[in-house]
Write a structure and sequence with these properties.
Layout (H helix, E strand, L loop, with lengths): L1 H14 L7 E4 L3 H12 L5 E4 L3 H9 L4 E3 L6 H8 L5 E6 L5 H9 E9 L12 H7 L2 E4 L7 H9 L9 E6 L3 H9 L7 E5 L1
Length: 198
């Protein structure tokens, strides 16, 4: 559990977010939800989250999101632009699969905003509207792993500042590892983080 936390911590640092800045998180898996909690700790407000899975959106609200959106039913870009009175967000983290969410991240960001790409695209390609990124003067950063965050991640957890256990949705013994992996791969309802115990 420290690894996704470390990735989220590194992605937060890349954003250079300031107290009172607005933020959007596109993708509310474990890393996205940890980013949400860290952004809230850093003083970001408001924070918007999108995810197609209803149980992830519910967890995002419980974790401090101001508004959540379902990309299957709503135009996330339009919703966030409207919610920010046309301004967009200071910081946008893309923490999904790096597909349409990358292009959405650029559209959701405000003038001079920061877009941090955390997700890993399945086809190893990214597509954005160049004119949007260029005209807004956006800073695009790529998050690569966790960059020496283990000591700070351990400290946060040991001090009880981040409830990592709340992200664990299922536990399996080692003898049922194949079932655990299959459940995770299938995005079985209510699955967030599957843990295999010895």
């Amino acid at each position: 559990m420290l690894e996704p936390l470390g990735v989220a911590m590194h992605a937060l640092a890349l954003s250079k977010i300031q107290i009172g800045e607005s933020a959007a998180i596109l993708g509310a898996g474990p890393i996205g939800l940890l980013l949400l909690q860290l952004a809230r700790m850093a003083g970001a407000s408001p924070i918007f989250v999108s995810d197609p899975l209803p149980w992830r959106r519910t967890l995002a609200l419980k974790s401090g999101a101001d508004q959540v959106f379902d990309p299957k039913k709503e135009n996330v870009v339009e919703e966030i632009i409207q919610a920010t009175s046309g301004r967009g967000c200071d910081v946008v983290w893309e923490s999904a699969w790096g597909t349409t969410t990358v292009a959405e991240s650029v559209e959701v960001a405000c003038l001079g905003g920061h877009v941090i790409l955390v997700g890993i695209p399945a086809d190893d390609k990214l597509e954005v509207k160049a004119s949007s990124a260029r005209r807004k003067g956006l800073t695009l950063r790529f998050a690569r792993r966790m960059k020496h965050t283990y000591p700070r991640a351990i400290q946060l957890v040991s001090e009880g500042k981040l409830p990592l256990k709340s992200l664990i949705s299922h536990r399996f013994p080692l003898t049922e590892a194949a079932q655990a992996f299959q459940m995770n791969l299938n995005y079985t309802p209510e699955v967030l983080k599957v843990i295999i115990t010895s």
